[in-house]
Amino acid sequence: MLIEERFINYTKIDTTADARSKTCPSTPNQLIFADMLIYELKQIGVKDARKDGNGFVYGTVESNVDYKTDVIGLLAHMDTSDATSGKDIKARIIRDYDGKDILLSEGIYSTVSDYPFLKDLKGKDIIVTDGTTLLGADDKAGIAIIMDFIQYLYQNPEVKHGKIMVCFTPDEEIGTGILKIDLNEFVCDYAYTLDGGAVNNVTFENFNAASATLTFNGNSIHPGDAKNKMINATQLAIDFHNMLPVNQRPEFTEKREGFNHLLGIVGDCQQAKSSYIIRNHDLDLLHQQMHHFELITMHINEMFNRHVVELQLKETYHNMKECLTDKMFIVEQAKTAIEQLGYTVEYEPIRGGTDGAHLSFMGVATPNLGTGGRNFHGNHELAIIDEMKEMVKVLANIINIVVERGVKE
Ligand SMILES: [Zn+2]
Prior knowledge:
Layout: H1 3-11, H2 29-44, E1 50-51, E2 57-61, E3 72-77, E4 92-94, E5 102-105, E6 108-110, E7 126-128, H3 137-155, E8 164-169, E9 190-196, E10 201-203, E11 208-217, H4 233-243, E12 259-267, E13 271-280, H5 283-304, E14 309-317, H6 321-324, H7 329-339, E15 346-347, H8 355-361, E16 368-370, E17 373-374, E18 382-384, H9 385-405
Parallel strand pairs: 3-8, 3-9, 9-16, 10-15
Antiparallel strand pairs: 1-2, 2-8, 4-7, 5-6, 7-18, 10-16, 11-13, 11-14, 12-13, 17-18
Helix pairs in contact: 1-3, 3-9, 7-9
This protein binds zinc ion.
């Protein structure tokens, strides 16, 4: 089966994750998709393909050399973002794309002025939507690449490789899935997630993350009698927000600049609540940002001489970089594998978290590789078939590097 056919089949199942769900996976279609993937793995030759009670799919490609090599894990996630619809996706292949504005459907275009990278895709085969749903290249392109790579290994038994563990995971988009992975089923020395963009992107840095939840206790009184008595809780929430540095709002930051993002304010005169996510690649800087929340809280409470503001701070995840400092060969061999195809590698720090970050802190160092997808989480999402095929070659190169480094026991 062609990689694009495989991928388009995957997009037909709506696997939108649901953050409100109490189950894992968060939506039942992820289980149906898991069964479909298990069937495909078995067809290819992965005899032990199976899923666990939380919907994780596991499978083993046994080594075909008689010496010891690193055991590598490969992961991609089955769910898609709920940022836009993932239902009734109408994936369409554009062969030999002309590099111009793309008419997705009546009145809906992906334009070169909105997405300048499009002009660089001239001559490539790409897959788009009809502009009313996401595509799901994030991360079904990753699954298609892994599946195609495994098929390549089974069809070419002369290709030497060590043991490879495969895992397709639920609920990456809501950040909770990976915590339920069974590391007795997924035993490897290190792993790679295929959940990024361009072929030349390798990621081993993500944000350190914290959250702040604030409660403002006001004093409500008829506005006509309010002088020197009313404390408007919602006004306090606004004042608090305005004391945070403006240049640390997400809309003014990029690359390695951290931010404090206001998720929302709800309230009335008597009580208000606001919540933030706090992000920085540098842990010391993250702690400074968190400390800033504490200082503002103290300041406002001193001003009123009572506890009008209550602050709850929580660190939620960390930058995986610290897990990789003494294992940089994992990143280096991916870099070499990509360079062997003629690319110049860019280390792109992710401005978010990844399953790989969680896994790294669970003991399996896991940098992230590209999938050939672009414009994730939106109706203009697309997949580049040529890049998906290139990623299959990247995996083949990595496996080759690993097998050549293997040692006779
Ligand atoms: Zn993803």
